Amino acid sequence: MRRILKTSVMPCLKATESWLVVSVGVAVRFLLGLSGFLALVSGANASADTEASFSIDQPVSGSCEKVKNATPLCLFSNPEDMAILPGNRWLLVSEYGDYHGSRPGALVFYDLDKKKRRIAYDGDSTQPPGEYWGDPSCIEAPGAVFSPHGIDLKRRKDGRWQLLVVQHGGRESIEFFELVNSDHGPSLLWRGCAIAPDNASLNSVAAGADGELFTTKMMASKVSWGSDSSESSGLVFRWTGRSGFEVVPGSEGLMLNGIAASKDGRSLYVVYSGENVVKKIDSERGIVIDSTPVKSADNIKWSADGETLLVASFVGSQAIEDFAHCTSAEVGVCPIAFSIIELEPEQLAKKTLFDNRAAPMGAGTVGIKVKDTLFIGTFSGNRILQVELPAPAL
User: Fold this and answer.
1) Degrees (nearest 5) of the Cα angle 73, 76, 82?
2) In percent, how much of the chain has pLDDT > 70?
3) Is the pLDDT of residue 34 over 50?
4) pLDDT of 364 over the 90 cut
5) What is the helix, strand, coil percentage profile of the chain, to 5?
6) Quick one: pLDDT at residue 357?
7) Are strands 350-356 and 213-219 parallel, antiparallel or unpaired?
């Protein structure tokens, strides 16, 4: 899930959207600092190895009409990150507030069959949990300031489903939820949190094995937007209930963004937005196993079948004014071109699944592939894009 300063395009997104809306003064400082950062990364060559399997190039429009095989679902507010629930009927969506926690957001369910959205969690729940999965010292829910960012859903060893959420409202934290099901559909139970280390702005999260998790520190929370944006202050944290947060050796870099983990937690797939690269890291030995260039990448997620990884990549304008436009509360379509790139997890071979230059949605930050359907979220706007992919050649 993205922030404005992330890297090149992606990074800029998240951060931009939030605080530009919140404060003109903060926005100005951000844009001044961002100009140097964009100059740093805009020259990188990070194109996909193969051409897009499906492409759209239409004028920008706020319309919710279908364009070719892409249908906008105009029911959301900044759907920056997503997960698919077991059974592939429901999407779980993180509706991004902002990077600084100044604007609340929400977690929502979307029923793919009935095409209906409903709130899953917005901080209003006052029911105390029967058990805590996070740090024992975190016993209070985030409340109405709840502002989610990156999310990850994974089954625990005890068979229950755990949702991890990067959260900025009132505290910088990883929030723990249990996904439960009933005759009325899915719901979320808050199960505690883990407070982030001091001076760390988190972005994305991935569950590992045996109760561990991994999260990306994009940058220092006390960084000045006017400072040197080339400083490599990002890294990956590992958290366990026994040891708390610890730095994954060898993970340091510029503007870390999305993260995904293998089932055993041994291999991490980490987006370095400021370096225009995705790295595969051995979480135990702290070494880079492989890497591949991806321009201005944002979130990285497993496909529903767990066979491939999908990365959202900003491929369009680097202009500050375009990102500033996307932070407007009234914007329907952010006019930033993007691609969704599919990665093979062993050697990181890649191909472009979808390429979008304008309507019916821009600034894609996350892609979820469910069979031959692709769902794409954005840090800015009122829609998720549903794309019917071409059938694979026989």
Assistant:
1) 85
2) 77
3) no
4) yes
5) 10, 40, 45
6) 74
7) unpaired
CA–CA separation, 325 and 39 (whole Å): 19
Closest CA to 368 of 162, 85, 10: 85
Q: How much is the pLDDT for 80?
A: 96
Side chain identity at 19, as an amino acid letter? W
Does residue 319 carry a pLDDT above 80?
no
| Dist. CA 295–CA 316, nearest whole Å | 10
Residue 111 structure tokens? 């029923």
Q: Identify which of 64, 73, 183, 193 has the alpha carbon closest to the alpha carbon of residue 121.
A: 193
DSSP E strands in 61-220: the ranges are 70-73, 79-84, 90-95, 106-111, 116-121, 148-155, 161-167, 173-182, 185-195, 201-207, 213-219
Region 65-75 average pLDDT: 92
> What are the tens digits of pLDDT across the range 320-335?
777 777 776 565 678 7
**Cβ atoms within 10 Å, residue 113:** 7
Give residue 129's pLDDT: 83
Residue 67 or 304, more confident: 304
Where is pLDDT greater, at 29 or 336? Answer: 336
Domain 9-388 listed as CATH 3.30.930.10: no
State residue 316's pLDDT score: 77
pLDDT of amino acid 321: 73
CA atoms within 13 A on the CB side of 193: 22
CA 87 to chain centre: 22
| Rounded CA separation 217/264 (Å) | 22
Mean pLDDT on 197-204: 95
Burial status of residue 35 (CB atoms within 10 A of its CB: 0-12, 13-18, 19 or more): middle
Residues 53 and 344: their CA atoms lie apart, in Å, by 16
Q: Which amino acid is at 230?
A: S
Tell me the CA end-to-end span of the chain in Å, nearest whole number.
35
Domain ranges within the chain, ordered by starting residue? 9-388
3-state secondary structure string across 80-97: EEEEECCCCCEEEEEECC
Residue 367 CA, chain-centre distance (Å), reads 9
- 3-state SS assignment for residue 244: strand
